[in-house]
Amino acid sequence: MTDEFIDDDEDYRYLNPKHQRNLTVTIFGNGFPSEARIVTLKQSETENKFINIHEQQNPNPKLQRKFTVTIFENRVSITVTKRAGIVRQWLSRIKNRNRNKLTKRSLVVGLGVQWQPPHTNKVATLQLCVGSQCLIFHICRSNGIPLILRDFLSDGNVTFVGVRNYEDAERLYNDYNLKVKHVLELGYIAGYKGVSMEKLASLILGFDGVKKIESVGRSEWDQRELSEKQVEYACVDAYISFEIGKKLNAWKYV
């Protein structure tokens, strides 16, 4: 199977107060002053400058939605689904493509979960990332949890990594009885315990300017359909975790 990517690199913006700066300039000509209003775009404080997302055309969006996220020129293919069958297919492909790493116990997987505050709410999404492939399982809306996912999370040959993920495994177990065998906090093994994902991305990967937008992180993750901003947020979290884990050879720490 060949992964399909969208090649449209255009960045569309709307002129609104968050993205613009207004200047009034007085112009003198023929002895008469006149005023001109100039609108200049500025980088929004709620956007990631080097990250773009595109939704792909999909004949059956009820089963899954497909996106491509470009993160510092690295393209990541995202599958968003509520269906256990799609999760089963995605994990089967990942395991087949990484048989050698599974045998050597060197497979690293970026793992993250999202829920809407407060903490009493159940985990709404589970995201996994391996290489350029990311799965966002809308688990709170799912029609079931496939056995292959339970087996994958509890596989001793897989190392799951994240940033400030101290309670992710506990929450997955409490909410869905999903056991994660090996889960590591990347700041700890990098010697930067408690440091944010944004800071680790800069220090270890050279990705300067990554932002975890608080309003998105605290949004309604249990709504019927995830927004593009939520998909981007979840993907970036899992992808950067994977890349840092790979860079640090995280499997050596379990």
What is the structure about, briefly put?
It holds the Pfam family DNA_pol_A_exo1. The protein is an alpha/beta fold and 254 residues long.
Structure keywords:
single chain; about 250 residues; alpha/beta; Nucleotidyltransferase, domain 5; 8-stranded mixed β-sheet; two-stranded antiparallel ribbon; 8 helices; 10 strands; about 30% helix; about 25% strand; globular; disordered N terminus
- Rounded to the nearest angstrom, the radius of gyration is 21 Å
CATH superfamily: Ribonuclease H-like superfamily/Ribonuclease H
Beta-strand level of the residues, as a percent range? Answer: 25-35%
Q: Assign a percent range to the helix content.
A: 25-40%
Uncertain residue segments: 1-29, 36-45
- State the distance separating the first and last CA atoms: 32 Å
How can the largest sheet be summarized? Answer: 8 strands, mixed
Discrete helix count: 8
Strand order of the largest sheet: 3-4-5-8-7-6-9-10
What is the tally of beta strands?
10
Number of domains: 1
Give the overall shape.
globular
Q: What string gives the helices and strands in order?
A: EEEEEHHEEEHEHEHHHH
Going by helix content, strand content and strand pairing, the class is: alpha/beta
CATH domain fold name? Nucleotidyltransferase, domain 5
The CATH class name reads Alpha Beta
Domain 3'-5' exonuclease: 78-254
GO molecular function: 3'-5' exonuclease activity; nucleic acid binding
Protein name: 3'-5' exonuclease domain-containing protein
Keywords: Hydrolase, Nuclease
